[in-house]
Amino acid sequence: MPSPFRSAADRLADAAPGWLVETVRPAPAKPAWWPMVRMALAVTVPLLVALVAGNLTLGLLPSMGAMGPGLANRGGPYRERVARIGLVGLGGAAGYAIGAMVRGHGWWTVPVIVVVSVVSALISTIGAKGSLAGLQLVVMAVISTGIPLPGGPLLGAAQFLLGVAWVTVLGVADWPLRSRNPEESATVTVYRSLDRLIDDRDADALAAFDTALESGYDAVFGARSASAGQDPGQTRLIALLNQASLIRNALISLGQEGRDPPEGTAAAVEEITAALDEGRAPHPPPRLPGESPALRALNSAVDGAVELASGGDVETEQLPYRPVGYGERFRNAWAKMWYGHFTRKYAVRLALCMGVATAISEFGLFERSYWMVLTVALVLKPDFGSVFARALQRALGTFAGTFVGVAVLLVVPYGPLILVPIAVFAALIPYGLQRNWGLMSTFQAPLVLLLVDLLTRGGPRLAEVRLVDTVAGCVIVLLLGYLPWPGSWHAPVRGPFADAVSATARYLRGAFDPGNPDRPVYRRKAYEAMSDLRVVFQRAVTEPPTVSRRITTWMPAMTALEKVADTTAATVARAEHGAPPPPPEAVRALADSLEEIAEAIRRRRVPAEPEPAAEGTPERLDDAIRALRDIISGHHTC
């Protein structure tokens, strides 16, 4: 029976977004009110305090210090929020101090901005927090070289940090209002999405569950990484997430057996969800009828979730993580910073474009050339999505936003009333950021326009200057940072796809060995790699048609790879509950076939023909891997 689940790659092929609608991250059904209010308060309260003190411009730096780190607050565990806001804030303060020191020194500004750009590129490779901190470092360095704010470099950096402190307070202000911490809420969300998966069993339900599970792991792992020593509560949450994944795999295994979930499955999972939500022990689940391996796997997974929710012991060897010491973290970060091909390429492109933009600004051809340099830094950030799409969206969003800004400058007089539109635009930025880069730029452009007008009193003419500088920055990025680079014209799928195949091979190789303590780790890594691959697909289809058309040819391969992983998970579930496990030599042969496919993808060649299936090889798994091999054979020249 065909699987009732349709792959994410198929859904992406049906509704691949164009460059005008590229999403920065998955958009919610409706914007959450608190992040919008929080951003409005972060930006306007420092200005309001300065207004009461008699000098509105004194609030500009604290307002800037709250804006960038405020956008870095994306929810999650409170310790993680504080760490992310603090790191981004420190990057911005350092950037401001460096830029203020070289302001007015003419051509010396060019090499300083180039060096700061290289440092920013290196920091950005460490991870999400490093990426945001690196961006804030270069953004504030550019702003402080172009805007003569009052006070010296260190005083300005201190004012900036006041804004960081304020947005940190706002970031944890909702803690007393929450009945549970974010890690617990994320776990409840996973089980709610599991309810839907049991009822619907369609592509959207599977996608919603996988997204919720990934977010749940990220939330709990983020909290755990900040903990000193073992935290039993967080360990239990990880075990509950792992158990939800086992229920998912059992449902897929039922589909392979041609069965629907028995009556009572949905009620049992709903009871677990309600118990987690209400902080109580769940009622014992009914015994689900049936004695097939998949049904036994489903019973076992549901029973395990009930036991964990009731306070039962956690089998830590089944948790999908291994402790990583600070020394290993530092070595991994150092390796990413200095030895990655991506790092070198991004650093060179960013340094080239920033150097050219800064040099042009020294000729005085643009009235406020720092806007041009800022545009280069923001658009050329490769981990934020398609450079091509962001350049066009930035130009169009700024064009629309400047008209709105001009209207506000013409209608609203200078003084306290100007804080009202500032608050409105600040509140809309988180919503725009959730949708796409162009909409975010539409809300950001008038906000920046109003803030600059507070200092310079440039009036509506600032809109024209902003638009010209932004378009100039986009042109520099496209001409120097995008078009001349061969990698811009190739589908950026090959490397991540090969990595995902290798991760799936490692998962398969250890999946049927009960004594292997890393089995849960390999399973999580395989699905993480495919999640990362889907992000690559989503970003790549926003490139020009020359590139995006090549991307679409890889989507059948993505579907086939997802089927290999899901078939592996379902086969493991059945083998652990009565079905005969495949012989070790058959498992090794299948894993070797996947490794051969991964190597062929990297080397742009046709995968070698696999050996005939050994006796006892799971037919569905063998068919899935052979189907993947056949599809990849047509991509060795892409």
UniProtKB/TrEMBL annotation:
Q: What keywords appear on the UniProt entry?
A: Cell membrane, Membrane, Transmembrane, Transmembrane helix
Q: Which InterPro entries does UniProt cross-reference here?
A: Memb_transporter_dom (IPR049453)
Subcellular location as annotated? Cell membrane
Membrane topology for this entry? Answer: Multi-pass membrane protein
Gene Ontology CC, one term: plasma membrane
The UniProt similarity line reads: Belongs to the YccS/YhfK family.
Q: What PANTHER family does UniProt report for this protein, alphabetically? A: MULTIDRUG RESISTANCE PROTEIN MDTO (PTHR30509:SF9), P-HYDROXYBENZOIC ACID EFFLUX PUMP SUBUNIT-RELATED (PTHR30509)
This protein's name: Putative membrane protein YccC
